[in-house]
């Protein structure tokens, strides 16, 4: 190995300890690139010699290479067998800088460079150096349609080289920190799952009257129902249910307090590049309405097909059956067929409480869907859902508490994703 206390250029990238040296990747190992045997010769492929392409690199140990070539292919092409332990790096395209360490002998295509022998360096120190240098290799590859680096760029890259015992200590420390980072990432994933489950539990407590205390001074929910239907059958007998109906609450059917309006059967001929956005099933996602990529219509339709800010929409068919989203836009939209708009009857239900209650019922709605691979659910079935209705003032307290708790968990979620 040829090393030097001064690199092959004037400006040292950074100062190194006295017992380290600056050298180049070409001085610490033997590097070679691979090749692709002619695809037109079928006898070159299907052999038992693994042939790695850059898409097989995984930034870790290579334990599986799907494609193989024959000895004839190796003899008649630039493909070369790299020994176990070789460090591989991608040189072309979107995978520039991707790495791998062979756990068995293998060939590679020409887009991959391999270090097959090491001088005064361990394979893992080299691996972690290349990993830390990835952004630099990508920058050297340029930004064209097919960026690439050459073997010459790799072998002329400067590397700070510590003594072998120190390399081993550095590797141990790197892997300790990587394990710590992996543990943090797993803890983040676990915490995100806990947050999701906690939010679900908050909704469950809310709709069963266990999130905030009842106030005997609140106007009972039975009076709310009488505003819509003076002859409505009031059900608050706990004997009918497996849980206790809270004081002042009543059990009713969703259809008694809400109407589910279906959308209009627009034709694809109605779709335009501009006009009024059309909410289709595909626009319902994660409790919201996403208009990115939506179609537009200019056709005038009845007002009942107009979607307004705050409306709660439900997918009634397809793979997203039962999914719901709140339309949050000051501009109106139109409602397509097989999407329902759940509208409140009179002043008996807060829109926010309606939304939270219905979000808690998604799994129940999915179980009621029918139709196999393309499930459907009818407006009638949804309107038959039981709805535990609290007094209006308690609805306000519940919504306030839910939003207070959700805000707390949302802030944690944002911190985890930062």
How would you summarize the topology of this molecule?
Elements: E1 21-24, E2 29-33, E3 45-52, E4 60-62, E5 68-69, H1 71-75, E6 87-90, E7 99-102, E8 107-108, E9 112-118, H2 123-132, H3 134-140, H4 151-155, E10 158-161, H5 164-207, H6 221-228, E11 250-253, H7 254-257, E12 258-262, E13 271-272, E14 276-279, E15 284-285, E16 287-289, E17 295-297, E18 306-307, E19 312-315, E20 324-326, E21 333-335, E22 339-344, H8 351-359, H9 362-368, H10 379-383, E23 386-389, H11 392-417
Parallel strand pairs: 3-8, 4-7, 14-21, 16-20
Antiparallel strand pairs: 1-10, 2-9, 3-5, 6-7, 6-9, 11-23, 12-22, 13-17, 14-17, 15-16, 18-21, 19-20, 19-22
Report on this model:
The protein has about 425 residues and is an alpha+beta fold. The chain folds into two domains: about 20-160, Alpha-Beta Complex (Adenine-n6-DNA-methyltransferase TaqI, Chain A, domain 2), CATH 3.90.220.20; about 220-390, Adenine-n6-DNA-methyltransferase TaqI, Chain A, domain 2 (Alpha-Beta Complex), CATH 3.90.220. Helices cover about 30% and strands about 20% of the residues. It is built from eleven helices and 23 strands. The strands form six sheets. The protein has a six-stranded mixed β-sheet with strand order 12-22-19-20-16-15. Strands 2-9-6-7-4 form a five-stranded mixed β-sheet, covered by helices on one side. Strands 13-17-14-21-18 form a five-stranded mixed β-sheet, with no helix packed on it. A hairpin with an 8-residue loop joins strand 6 and strand 7. Helix 5 (about 165-205) packs antiparallel against helix 11 (about 390-415). Keywords: DNA-binding, Endonuclease, Hydrolase, Nuclease, Restriction system. It comes from Phocaeicola plebeius. Pfam families: Methylase_S.
């Amino acid at each position: 190995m040829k090393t030097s206390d001064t690199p092959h250029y004037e400006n040292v990238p950074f100062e190194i300890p006295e017992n380290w040296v600056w050298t180049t990747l070409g001085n610490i190992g033997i590097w070679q690139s691979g090749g692709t045997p002619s695809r037109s010769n079928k006898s070159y492929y299907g052999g038992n010699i693994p042939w790695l392409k850059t898409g097989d690199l995984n930034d870790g140990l290579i334990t599986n290479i799907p494609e193989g070539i024959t000895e004839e292919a190796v003899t008649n092409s630039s493909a070369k067998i790299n020994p176990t332990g070789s460090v591989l790096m991608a040189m072309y395209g979107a995978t520039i800088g991707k790495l791998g360490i062979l756990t068995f002998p293998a060939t590679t295509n020409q887009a991959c460079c391999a270090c097959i022998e090491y001088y005064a360096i361990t394979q893992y120190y080299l691996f972690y150096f290349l990993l830390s240098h990835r952004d630099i290799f990508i920058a050297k590859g340029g930004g064209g349609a097919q960026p690439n680096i050459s073997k010459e760029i790799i072998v002329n890259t400067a590397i700070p080289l510590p003594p072998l015992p120190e390399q081993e200590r550095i590797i141990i420390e790197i892997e300790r920190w990587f394990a710590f980072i992996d543990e943090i990432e797993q803890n983040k994933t676990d915490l995100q799952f806990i947050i999701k489950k906690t939010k679900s539990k908050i909704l469950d407590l809310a709709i069963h009257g266990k999130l905030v205390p009842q106030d005997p001074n609140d106007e009972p929910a039975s009076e709310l129902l009488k505003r819509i239907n003076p002859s409505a059958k009031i059900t608050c007998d706990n004997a009918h249910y497996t849980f206790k109906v809270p004081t002042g609450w009543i059990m009713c059917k969703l259809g008694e307090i809400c109407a589910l309006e279906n959308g209009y059967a627009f034709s694809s001929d109605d779709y335009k590049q501009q006009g009024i956005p059309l909410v289709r099933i595909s626009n319902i996602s994660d409790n919201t309405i996403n208009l990115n990529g939506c179609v537009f219509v200019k056709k005038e339709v009845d007002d009942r097909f107009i979607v307004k800010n705050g409306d709660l929409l439900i997918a009634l068919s397809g793979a997203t059956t039962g999914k719901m989203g709140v339309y949050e836009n000051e501009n109106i939209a139109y409602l397509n067929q097989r999407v329902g708009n759940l509208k409140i009857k009179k002043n008996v239900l807060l829109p926010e409480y309606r939304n939270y209650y219905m979000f808690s019922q998604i799994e129940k709605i999915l179980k009621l869907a029918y139709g196999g691979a393309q499930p459907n659910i009818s407006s009638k079935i949804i309107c038959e859902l039981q709805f535990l209705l609290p007094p209006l003032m308690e609805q306000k307290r519940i919504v306030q508490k839910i939003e207070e708790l959700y805000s707390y968990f949302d802030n944690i979620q944002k911190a985890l994703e930062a």
